[in-house]
Amino acid sequence: MRVLSFPLLILCLLFSHLAPGAGFLTGLGQRSDHYICARKGGTCNFSPCPLFTRVEGTCYGGKAKCCMR
């Protein structure tokens, strides 16, 4: 019994560490707004956008702005 419980414990620990990495894809085929902003060449800022940039969307679930030139 002790021999089987150790591999089971290792598998449980492995899968518990993989779960946070699943947050990169927010749904089936959908990317996070931060990824989309960066892919378009923008940056995510919690403060106002720097000079000569404009707001093109949101990041982090609407908490930050996606700023682009």
Arithmetic mean of pLDDT: 79
Strand residue percentage: 15-25%
**Shape, principal axes of CA atoms:** elongated
Approximate helicity band: 25-40%
Question: Any guess at the CATH architecture of the domain at 31-68?
Answer: Roll
Low-confidence runs of at least 5 consecutive residues: none
Strand-pairing-aware structural class: alpha+beta
**How many E-type strands?**
3
The level-1 CATH class of the domain at 31-68: Alpha Beta
GO molecular function: CCR6 chemokine receptor binding
Keywords: Antibiotic, Antimicrobial, Defensin, Disulfide bond, Secreted, Signal
Subunit structure: Monomer. Homodimer.
Signal peptide: 1-23
What does this protein look like?
- This protein is an alpha+beta fold.
- The protein has a domain at 31-68: Antimicrobial Peptide, Beta-defensin 2, Chain A.
- The protein has two helices and three strands; from the N terminus they run ααβββ.
- The protein has a three-stranded antiparallel sheet with strand order 1-3-2, with helices on one face.
- Strand 2 and strand 3 (64-68) form a beta hairpin.
- The protein is elongated, with a radius of gyration of 19 Å.
- Residues 1-23 form the signal peptide.
- One of its GO terms (cellular component) is extracellular space.
- Keywords: Antibiotic, Antimicrobial, Defensin, Disulfide bond, Secreted, Signal.
- Residues 33-67 form the Beta-defensin-like domain.
- InterPro entries: Defensin_beta-like (IPR001855).
